[in-house]
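re: the backbone from monday

yeah here it is again, tokenized this time
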């Protein structure tokens, strides 16, 4: 199988009360699993089963006839990282020096970053994601994408992303997407993982 559903890196109830076990059970065991299953089926059909996930995301984004494969492969990539972008007792202004400096240089302050990141997530009309990506000249940028689209498809490197599909927050926050996004930044973000991706630098694709 090309794609494999990972175990969550923490217990289902580990993110309570900011993200409930009910949300994680549905989101991981049903939604993410469906992207993996459908993605494998479509990658096989497209003759791309031997490629890396990153290659499949890029190839299927460029080829509009492969939109269904892109939707599922993109969402698989997004969720692989999303689980790692959270941790118990995460969030707040708790990151290492270089990343903190980049946030300050790019947005003015951590609070300005927080405001813009939440605003991007709230402003994404319908389903999608909000992202923190590597920009030019060592700066960081915020972007938002619809549905399963991600920075990778646009040749950009995401170091943080948040799922704003309703399945990610409706059980815990109902329609209050802003409250969910604030709780994500204040209480859930795994800054160690963000720093790891920041230090790794731009994604390199074999393709
Ligand atoms: Mn999701």
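seq for it, each position gets an aa:
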């Amino acid at each position: 199988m090309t794609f494999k559903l990972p175990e969550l890196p923490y217990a289902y109830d580990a993110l309570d009360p900011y993200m409930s076990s009910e949300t994680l059970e549905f989101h991981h065991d049903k939604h993410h699993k469906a992207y993996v299953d459908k993605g494998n089926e479509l990658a096989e059909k497209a003759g791309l089963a031997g490629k890396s996930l990153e290659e499949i995301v890029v190839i299927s984004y460029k080829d509009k006839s492969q939109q269904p494969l892109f939707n599922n492969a993109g969402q698989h990539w997004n969720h692989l990282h999303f689980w790692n972008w959270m941790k118990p007792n995460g969030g707040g202004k708790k990151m290492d020096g270089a990343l903190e400096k980049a946030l300050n240089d790019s947005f003015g302050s951590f609070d300005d970053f927080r405001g813009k990141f939440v605003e991007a997530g709230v402003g994404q009309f319908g389903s999608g994601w909000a992202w923190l990506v590597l920009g030019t000249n060592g700066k960081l940028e915020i972007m938002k994408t619809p549905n399963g689209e991600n920075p990778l498809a646009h040749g950009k490197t995401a170091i943080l992303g948040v799922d704003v599909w309703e399945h990610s927050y409706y059980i815990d926050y109902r329609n209050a997407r802003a409250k969910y996004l604030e709780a994500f930044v204040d209480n859930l973000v795994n800054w160690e993982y963000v720093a790891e991706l920041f230090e790794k630098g731009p994604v390199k694709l074999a393709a």
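The CA atoms of residues 133 and 158 lie 4 Å apart. The beta strands are 128-134, 140-146, 158-163.
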